[in-house]
Amino acid sequence: MLRYIVGRIGQSLLLLFLVSIIGYFVLLLAPGGPMSQFALTPGISKQDLDRIAEQMGLNRPIIVQYADWLWHLLQGDWGASFRDNRPVLTVILDHLPATLLLMGSATAIAMTLGVWIGIMGAIRRYSIFDYAATVGAMIALSVPTFWFGLIAIYVFSLNLGWFPAGNMYTIGSGSVGDVLWHLVLPASVLALVDVAIWSRYMRTATLDVINQDFIKTARAKGLSPRRVLFKHVVGNALLPMITLAGLQVPALLGGALVTETVFTWPGMGRLFLDSLGYNDYPVVMGLLMFSAVLVLIGNLLADLISAFVDPRIRLA
Amino acid sequence: MMSTVTPANLDLPPENWWRSRTARRFRRHRLAMFGVVMIAVLTIACVLGPYLLPYDQLFIDLRARFAPPMTGGHIFGTDPLGRDVAARLFHAGRISLLVGFCAMLISIVIGTVIGVLSGYYGGRVDAALMRFTDAFLSFPSIFLLLALAAFIRPDPLMITVIIAVTTWMEVARIVSTEVRSLRERDFILAAHMLGLSNRWIMFRELLPNAIGPIIVAATLTVARAILLEAYVSFLGYGIQPPLPSWGNMLNGAQQYLGSAPWLAIVPGIAITLAVTSFNFIGDGLRDALDARSDLS
Amino acid sequence: MATDKTTLFPEISRRKALGLMAATGASLAVPALIGRGSALAAAPDKPTGQFIVGFSQEPTVFNPHLLHIEVDEGVHFAIFDPLFNVDPDGKFTPALAAEVPTVENGGISADGLNWKIKLRDGVKWHDGQPFTAEDVKFTLDLMVEPDFRSWRRAGHDLVRDIKVVSPTEITWRMEKTYAPYPSILASTFIVPKHALGEAADKNTAPFNNAPIGTGAFKWGKRVAGDHIELLANADYFGEGPYLERVIIKYIPDLNVLYTQFKSGDIDITGLQWITPDHYEEAKGLADREVQLVAGSTVESFTLNMGKPQFKDPAVRSALYHAIDKQAIIDALYYGLPTPTETYMPQQSFYYNPDLPKHEFSLEKAKAVLDGAGWLAGGDGVRAKDGVKLAFTCSTTAGNHIREQAQQFIQQSFKDIGVEMTISNLPPAVMWGDYWMTSQFDSVIVGIDFLTGPDPDTSDYFASTSSVATGGAGQNTWQYHSPEVDKLLQEGGNSLVPDERKASYLKLQEVVRNDLPLLPLFQYTTVRGRKKGLTGFTPNVNNRIDTWNIGTWYWEA
Fold first, then answer.
1. What's the topology of domain C297-524?
2. How close A235 gets to chain B, by Cα (Å)?
3. pTM
4. What is the greatest pairwise CA distance in chain B?
5. Do A154 and B264 touch (CB under 8 A)?
6. Where in the cell does this protein reside (chain C) (predicted)?
């Protein structure tokens, strides 16, 4: 088991290395440059910009810059943001809670709804409900998240006035209730895709379990269908669900990026877009690495859990 | 996950294919048929639509800005420059569908080559190529896509290429798995014994037999590519106006959500329809190509 | 140039500044900055209440000498002081200097080379340390320190022999006469030697994220991505502060910024302000004052004169005729901006109001092109001597209204047989080499040509300022005119506003005639605030809203 874990972590580190090379070279070989955002600042001259680029070491060969960046990264130094000189890791961690809150709430909504829809669909297989859920899931997977967000704002914020159209809290308030109130729309929008995925997954898992002998035995023993369902079906399907949650991390992060943009949610997605707009390479790089780490951790956990549950995988 | 296709299924000449079990299964798949019809309708509308409308998509009339749908001959209203949204929508459809389709082609080529190589050679080649694939998969693709798009000249060709560059990984994985399982089959062993070259075996023997899953993946990739184009263009880094795309028609629509909601609603429906249809078709194809589905 | 009666600083009538702030209704009651009118409610005795300013960009650079953007200055002005400030009339008012140095008071030698500045006594930094001439010397030295990434060295690199005469007096010598230097000094904030001087790397010193100044407000705290809190500096030497706390709120979306203003979540709309499409509605809001304020940014359609299409003056003139400026202003910008014929803001002392007026006429445009021999080919596009009148036009992708204007212009150009292809780019690509080394054909851009109130624009118009031809600067349109060079030289050599004025008036005339850029309009911003806020004063010379935040208060 330990060897497996060490092996997987080794692989992940190799992956991170690859990710960093791809990301870095894409960013630095591109035209423009971090100084270009200041080109139109009144009073600043081309000489100033060239000098500052030189002072910041941006004129060195890209390989040297990469090596330098990587060397610092290995020592735990993610570099400093071009915009405010703050350490990249600090900047990212500042924005992390908002994103985690959004992703966490969306996952909670998706799991609850998805599990329910999935089980109901499996129990009433081929019913209208089941059919509607299947088609609904496919449509949900096809709607652009940002568009769903726009429509949600149009209906629930502009027309009905039930929820705010953006931001994380009212300025000056920021109480838990206030944050929750702001959270409803973005979390629901982000959850949509996941509801589809969870419900599909849960339907299959439930069908698998329903047909197994011990369920038939349990029912034969006279246990109520409901108890059988929740004790055995959900219990058995739950562990693999964690695996699925791990695999969902990249999609969720991508969804969070657009959702945060539409709802002006102050998380990592917004930070990414802002940093792109400002050519803040260190932060963009940091976010790429950070999200890759999140994804890898997700995958690793998924793998480990399945390995733990299913001993056969270890041999592979 | 992906089922294998028996070689017999696809070696049939076209006239027989229509009557094959696969085709019959596909035609019975109601959602898939809905998808096929929808895509046909959308394609025809995008190709012919502009000729049937009274307005040119580029015709600017500042006096007619923000005309609501069904007024002044504008079925879907007008945009902030007074251009006909319907005309733009159809033109945008050409771009979006074309970008989606071309991105899929490139994506399939990259994915297939990597998948075949890794599946066929196995061992270190497989490990290296699959780690490379994993590296790409570790980026949430929208992050990678934006990072690429923010720093290049955003013309449709480049957008197509970078969408392809961020979508080939699934295909590579599917093909690799497929080829790995086919590799040990008798007909491949026979090919080896006949002394056929590796290249011949890979692309003449293995690939045709893996074509089923590739087609399914291709269909789903079109859907994904259309969606990605919409994301990137919505965020302002994709196709640039005045060239319309469904995505860039939505860029800026948020600003007018209160005063001209049709600007957001209309292109969004088009995207959803197209993507849903391709997903339906992909789903139908997967079921149809799954020989076991007749048994259940 | 050195006459006895030289005054260094321009006298601009208040009428000029206020008259151009096309105020609406209630907002005419803008208080004058200095000598607050007695009709207005009195300021509170001690700092009371708080104020929330909304900005659509996030201030992130708090060391005012590092590379930063406009919005960062919103914080700098609250925390720091320069030696002297610029008021809305373009006049300098003393801040950390006890008086504004002039030739008359002996602060500046008649040739403009020797400077002597008397400093205010008894000023304390926010941490209680006394402010002295050492801090001024430290700041001026810092600007040119080799390893420090100071955002601007122009002017500072001419300063020599800085001498601290006494804690309240400092002198230096200038290498040569440099007319814009007073304007540069007016936006050079003095930073504390004791807090920053010891830092191993001043680029990354802790000071940069917890600044210490002499200003009306002290650094409170920053919640990154959200807001910054500033607290009243009870020991402030100047007027105010009257507010206990100022919150600078970052709201990344202009629609949300407006919504928050409407709902009262923010008290004043800061940088990027209210979008033009919301102006009508905003005017009608209860308990809000909405004011139109001229911005110093001028929008223009710039032509790269290095390209063969644009070498012919007839082409530039014809294109200008083909732009329906008024339609763009009225329909797309809701009639708010002011049409202009020059790069100079109309509030400037140096503005030339007598330039020929633009006339929109497709017929004239065609006639000019016909007359110059640009005739339509088989594809309907005009050409002459093998050069087709076809070019690309770029701007930053994402500026929706500008993109709309661009597409509108494209249609007009098509009507006169000119083919314009739109090729918009992400900001990172646009303003890099593509712009700096003149790779573009044409660009639509809003530029603030001035340094504060100073009229020098050598960086944009001198022949030596084109990178593409081996120069250094932002003459990216490659406009090379000996006459312009001469006028810039004349204007820059004089310290007498009235003498300089003639040069700059003439310069604007030449530029208007040559049309390296087709001037479209000067921006007008829509600024809203809650009723009862006193002290807010637009200042075209200090673009950021909070330039005088120390004097703001709520009417009781």
1. Dipeptide-binding Protein; domain 3 (3.10.105)
2. 23
3. 0.83
4. 76
5. yes
6. Periplasm
